[in-house]
Write a structure and sequence with these properties.
This protein is of the alpha+beta class. Helices cover 41% and strands 20% of the residues.
């Protein structure tokens, strides 16, 4: 019997607000700030402390809900989700359940097989937990754990899909596109290594073509695409083997062990009733006016898929180039700034895309810089000027690469670099003819080989001429003049 996977994702994204979800404590980088330094009675769960809803977090939640084509609920309610965990100081989490922020959304993702529509079940607001640090025995101390509450109370948006994904490829495509949308909206940094976006995969398998939903496992807190792909693939293979051998999959929560490459059982899978949800008595129902939703919708930016399609249609870019450029919103903006900086008659978006995705990405990777830092030196106007110099045969491509590196390091204009270093392209036919004649006279063995039928020697002659011109020769002029000289050589032989 053939089995197929059934996968849904729950994504927890910390929101880029200045303060926490229900108190005035600042949101800090929990990987860098000293432990327990940004905590107050509210986020520490002290008795009698009263929460207040963060309006900016609501705004960010609405942005995401609308970008995911969700229906925004006019009234939603915060609830207490009761469970015990050492980094949950109140003994419950303020979240949403029966009346969440938004429902019934969707996202189209593209895979190598087809475009798939992934339905969004719900989007809701909640608060993050604290963070545990586990320590092995040392200095006479037994094995122990410490808790840092700096992250406790940070606004968290949970985005839950329907079980619509049928492959690891679809899971990765959905997760990558969602991360890009969150970054475009300015609500999340997407820094997975710092845990500001975390994935939980609900995985089951069933007989291919059937509509049943079998017992599933929930793989918790996957904080990288690699971990998510490996964990989901492992669970698909493990569960398939269990069913094929006549066994039964146990519904449970598992963790992912990256070093061993296996999932590890943690606890039985909870159901909603296990959390004993009830309305948060210290927070009133949240009423969202249609006018507010309309204002947020009007301010949504152009999202990655729409921008990619526009780049293909408007600039004639390939799908590959467009995807590379729109992956980072700041890179896409830089590309368009360079296009605008070019003179209209010399406009060449494809050439600009090649420079950005090729040389610029290479130099950024080597230096560890992002586009925001790089563009302060390599301004759109200067990159546009460089491409125009190439198109106008002022410099050739090899020289342009050297000039580009100089521009990246120093911020100088390409015209100044070319003039100072004498890098202008040599296109004078008379000068090139003289050099070709010199090369042919000084290379009798290679000339004989060419006349004997070894056509590849022509490229060697080309290289010798270019070497004499220190790489500044016009390739088209050299090739044409060389071809004419070789043709004369044949007739004179």
């Amino acid at each position: 019997m053939k089995f197929e996977p059934v996968i849904g994702l729950e994504v927890h994204a910390e929101l880029l607000t200045q303060s926490k979800m229900f108190c005035g404590c600042a949101v800090v980088d929990s990987t860098e700030a000293p432990p327990n330094t940004v905590v107050c009675p509210v986020c520490a769960g002290m008795p009698g402390a009263l929460p207040v809803i963060n309006e900016r977090a609501l705004e960010y939640g609405l942005r995401v809900a609308l970008a995911l084509n969700c229906e925004v609920r006019p009234v939603n309610i915060f609830a207490r989700k009761n469970y015990f965990y050492p980094d949950l100081p109140k003994g419950f989490q303020i979240s949403q359940y029966e009346l969440p922020l938004a429902v019934n959304g969707w996202m189209d993702v593209e895979t190598s097989q087809a475009t798939r529509r992934i339905r969004i079940h719900r989007v809701h607001l909640e608060e993050d937990t604290g963070k545990l640090f586990h320590h092995d025995p040392h200095d006479g101390l037994p094995e122990h754990s410490l808790v840092d509450l700096n992250r406790s109370g940070v606004p968290l948006l949970e985005i839950v899909t329907e079980p619509d994904m049928r492959s690891v490829e679809e899971v990765k495509a959905y997760a990558a596109q969602l991360r890009a949308i969150l970054r475009y909206l300015g609500v999340n940094s997407g820094d997975m290594e710092k845990g500001v976006i975390r994935f939980e995969a609900n995985v089951s398998v069933r007989p291919a073509g059937s509509g049943e939903l079998r017992a599933r496992t929930e793989v918790k807190n996957l904080n990288s695409f690699r971990a998510m792909e490996r964990a989901v693939a492992y669970e698909i293979a493990r569960q398939t083997q269990v069913w094929e051998s006549g066994g039964t999959v146990t519904q449970q929560t598992v963790g992912w062990s990256e070093p061993e490459g296996v999932t590890v059982p943690q606890r039985g899978k909870e159901h909603a009733h296990d959390y004993r949800y009830f309305p948060e008595p210290d927070l009133p129902p949240l009423v969202i006016a249609p006018e507010r939703v309309a204002r947020v919708r009007a301010r949504l930016p152009e999202l990655p898929n729409a921008k990619r399609a526009r780049f293909e249609a408007e600039y004639g870019l390939t799908r590959y180039d467009a995807e590379l450029l729109v992956e980072e919103q700041t890179v896409a903006a830089y590309f368009e700034q360079v296009v605008i900086a070019q003179r209209l008659e010399a406009r060449n978006p494809k050439a600009i895309a090649n420079w950005i995705t090729g040389e610029l990405f290479r130099l950024m990777k080597e230096s560890g810089e992002d586009i925001s830092a790089a563009r302060t030196r390599l301004t759109p106007a200067n990159l546009a000027a460089l491409t125009e110099m190439i198109a106008g045969n002022a410099i050739n491509l090899n020289t342009a690469k050297a000039v580009f590196e100089e521009m990246y390091r120093t911020g100088r204009a390409p015209q100044a670099i070319v003039e100072e270093k004498g890098l202008g392209q040599v296109s004078d036919v008379g000068e090139i003819e003289a050099l070709i004649a010199e090369v042919l006279r000084s290379s009798p063995d290679q000339a004989a080989a060419y006349l004997g039928g070894k056509a590849t020697v022509e490229q060697w002659f080309f290289g010798q001429v270019m070497k004499k011109l220190q790489g500044r020769g016009n390739p088209q002029v050299i090739r044409q003049t060389l071809a004419e000289a070789l043709e004369k050589l044949k007739h004179s032989a």
